[in-house]
Amino acid sequence: MVNKHYPAQFKADAVALYRSRPGTTIAQVADDLGVNRETLRSWVRADDQRRGATAGSAATAVRRQASGSVEEENAELRRRIRELEAERDILRKAARYFAGETHW
């Protein structure tokens, strides 16, 4: 098995993608990016240690307080747009990274 070395920015983007998609699993994100599941899991754990575990629980609490007003729905839709744009950017970077690895 070949050990791949990923750039720090790719790791950070992968963790950010996982965190921006509530309800998704590490396995789903890892499969989308073509990264080993345990590799992504270790990146998330390292980020948790770096940031402290309280930041994630605070974001979850805020999401639970949403009552469904139009303003909150608009805010949620804007958040989803940012999430999708970030996901697109990460996938573009991943495609460029992996395209650079293939030498014909």
What would a concise description of this structure say?
The protein has 104 residues and is mainly alpha-helical. The protein has one domain (8-101).
Averaging pLDDT over every residue, what do you get?
81
Q: H/E order of the elements?
A: HHHHH
Radius of gyration: 16 Å
Alpha plus pi helix count? 5
Number of domains: 1
Q: Helical percent range?
A: over 70%
Task: Provide the low-confidence segments as ranges.
Answer: none
Shape: globular
Write down how many β-strands occur, each being a DSSP E stretch of 2 or more residues: 0
Beta-strand portion reads: under 5%
Structure classification: mainly alpha
Biggest sheet statistics? none
User: Distance between the terminal alpha carbons, to the nearest Å?
Assistant: 21 Å
Question: What does it look like?
Answer:
The protein has 104 residues and is mainly α. It has one domain. It has five helices and no strands. The radius of gyration is 16 Å and the shape is globular.
Fold topology:
Layout: H1 8-20, H2 26-33, H3 37-51, H4 54-64, H5 70-101
Helix pairs in contact: 1-3, 1-5, 2-3
